Amino acid sequence: MSDFVSSIMEQVKAKNPAQPEFHQAVMEVVESLEVVIDRHPEYRNAKILERIIEPERVIMFRVPWLNDQGEVQVNRGFRIEMNSALGPYKGGLRFHPSVNLGILKFLAFEQVFKNSLTTLPMGGGKGGSDFDPKGKSDNEVMKFCQSFMTELCRHIGPDTDVPAGDIGVGGREIGFMFGQYKRVRNEFTGVLTGKGLNWGGSLIRPEATGYGAVYFAQEMLATRNETLEGKTCLVSGSGNVAQYTVEKLLDLGAKSVTLSDSSGYIYDPDGIDRNKLAWVMELKNVRRGRISEYAEQFKNATYYPLDATMGYNPLWDHKADCAFPSATQNEINQQDAKNLVGKGVYVVSEGANMPTVPEGVEVFLEKGILYGPGKAANAGGVAVSGLEMSQNSLRLGWTREEVDNRLQGIMKSIHQAAFEAAERFGTPGNYVNGANIAGFIKVADTMMDQGIV
Ligand code: NDP
């Protein structure tokens, strides 16, 4: 580690103890940016890096609610307003028992660069709660969402901060929160994205992150004059991102053979076709069941329960060409990365945020595979959220084709920006450096323009 990187990291660790995911995310970016700071002493003098790692505002609050038995429940709510140089804070809300300040700060930090890459005017933020929607009734989810929004609504607004969904927050939760915002504030505005189509949502928003990750893979393959046609793909997760990744892969003639949830994964050597995918969507979005049921329904498939003692995840140890991690952070460790490459995978497009540990990223970069980090590869979700904001401001709704064309155009330009920045700063083919640098320069220049704020 160079003196520059270690001095920044010392500060980050001293000021933000016990936030390992935040340290990990900052470290990855700072390593990429060293060469940029060397070429731009003005960024160093203006302490752009020191400012960019400090959230503009952190809001943390109590979320009390009553369960169906009438018992009092208490959760913790958060919103990290990380950087507003390019526009209103924008980023999802995550409801998951693992949520804490450090995880949300890592996500908010990554969001700043990702949003910059989309070319749309959006700052970066992230929020959520340690509330676990699993096993809760619709009524309990509604009560929680209403209590959460009763506090959050003081801090957000269509020109201030516009949250969206993330893990555990889909159309149902966005609906409950939008209803409560409208009731308390007496305003019908585009304060959240991922809304229902009848009340200001955009076509293609649910599909956008998964579709975008596949479009990004397509762009990376095009640099080698290849396509996704006929490729075998490993997909993790079985939520929003995973489902639409599988759908777009089907459209483009590729075959997905795995899906997972936090209990385990299924391997289906025949591939997940459209009928099976529709069944998964019903299982996960309506019945809210477990992926193990897939292997009971489709006899050629096998279910493997999660075994944390193994030291690696066998999902990543099947023969394939491409991998689309679409569940959560740090789901690919160093051994998994080695297994992937060993089994023939040479395209990794990250639908999830930071799914690969740094030692795993090193394996991908050393082997020279096509590796699209989440910051670039999963930016399609927030890009279409940005398009939803534009449609709300215009009070118009665009067609499916219009939004999908714009999404494809944005994913192409993100790929181009990352590809070119990697080359310009001396590491051709390294999309990690490329995405960090291209995302950073725009925010840094803007912060220079706007003074010390
Ligand atoms: P969902 O809640 O719809 O699905 C998440 C999936 O990942 C579920 O299958 C869930 O299983 C699994 N999962 C969650 N946490 C863990 C864990 N700790 N270990 C193993 N599996 C886990 O979320 P999304 O599909 O929206 O999000 C998936 C990833 O994509 C996240 O990293 C998110 O930050 C990222 N992302 C999402 C965007 C969006 O637009 N939704 C945009 C950009 C990135 P289970 O049901 O058992 O918990």
What does this structure look like?
With 453 residues, the protein is an alpha/beta fold. It folds into two domains: 186 residues, Rossmann fold; 170 residues, 3-Layer(aba) Sandwich (Rossmann fold), CATH 3.40.50. It is 49% helix and 15% strand. It has a five-stranded mixed sheet with strand order 1-2-4-3-5, sandwiched between helices. A five-stranded parallel sheet has the order 7-6-11-12-13, with helices on both faces. Strands 8-9-10 form a three-stranded antiparallel sheet. Strand 11, helix 12 and strand 12 form a beta-alpha-beta unit. The protein starts with a helix and ends with a helix. The structure holds NADPH dihydro-nicotinamide-adenine-dinucleotide phosphate. The site of NADPH dihydro-nicotinamide-adenine-dinucleotide phosphate (NDP) has 24 residues, from helix 9. NADPH dihydro-nicotinamide-adenine-dinucleotide phosphate (NDP) binds next to helix 9.
Number of contiguous helices:
17
Structural class: alpha/beta
CA radius of gyration is 21 Å
Top-tier CATH class of the largest domain? Alpha Beta
Order of helices and strands: HHHHEEEHEHEHHEHEEEHHEEHEHEHHHH
> Which word captures the global form?
globular
What is the CATH-assigned architecture of the largest domain? 3-Layer(aba) Sandwich
Ligand list: NADPH dihydro-nicotinamide-adenine-dinucleotide phosphate
Sheet of most strands? 5 strands, mixed
* Separation, N- and C-terminal Cα atoms: 30 Å
The order of strands across the largest sheet is: 1-2-4-3-5
| Total number of distinct structural domains | 2
Number of strands: 13
Q: Name the quaternary structure.
A: single chain
Would you identify the regions where 5 or more consecutive residues have pLDDT less than 50? none
- Share in helix: 40-55%
Would you identify the CATH H-level superfamily of the largest domain? Leucine Dehydrogenase, chain A, domain 1
CATH topology of the largest domain: Rossmann fold
Average of the residue pLDDT scores: 98
Strand composition percent: 5-15%
